[in-house]
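Intended use. Records such as the DUF481 domain-containing protein entry shown here are meant for training and evaluating sequence-to-structure methods. They are not intended to support clinical decisions.
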Amino acid sequence: MKVLTLLRGLPLFSLSFFSAGAMASVDIFTVPDDPSTAKSDFAGNVQGSYAHQGGNSRTSTISADSTLTWFDKANAYSLWGEAYNYSSDDTRSSEKYQAGLRLRHNLDGKNFLFGQSGWSGDRFNGYRGRYTTVAGYGRQIFSGPLHTLRAEVGPGVRHDEFTDGSGTTNALAYTALSYSYKLTDAAYFIQGVSVLASRDSTLNSETGIRIDLNKRFALKVTYNYTHNSKPPSTAPDKTDTKTQVSIVYNIP
């Protein structure tokens, strides 16, 4: 009960469970980490939070996301998902769900092929369902010890189903960058950016800092930015943002 009481007082606080490298939000939609540098055959994370406020104003927020990745010598296979909803005075005003699959095949030490497919539903932003599939070429530009940087590019297709009952299918061009920089022995800067260019282009960005407190725990602060160039008429705002503070637990 003491733990539940504490969580109710921290609306931006979440507990996270990580076992390895990939630290970017599932929104960024980039391929898995380099299998040649993986420290084990499996890397997984689960992150979730719950916040509740009562009294004159009643609000509640529930969020959870997870990424599970399996590695072999030249390949990586990743499953990911996210769920989020927010209610105020017993009325839900934000709700989002996502799930997908990512694949990576190393051609050599620097170059790789990838494929990824995902679904998202965000009815308060006008989307009953958004299905996206892309494939293409990537390059591991830096792999440490201070810098890690990879880039991806490829064609794809996206099908949108809107909450007003209409739908569209369009070809798209995908590109992404994923970067991290070791600031100190215990602190890392992380940045991910992806663009899905089409008639309705989407830009996703995550900027953050991770600080290792000890071998098991770390503090992570992230700012996520999403911009749609042509949002649905039922949800005309083009930009959504999210700030989150997490305590990360590293699974042995």
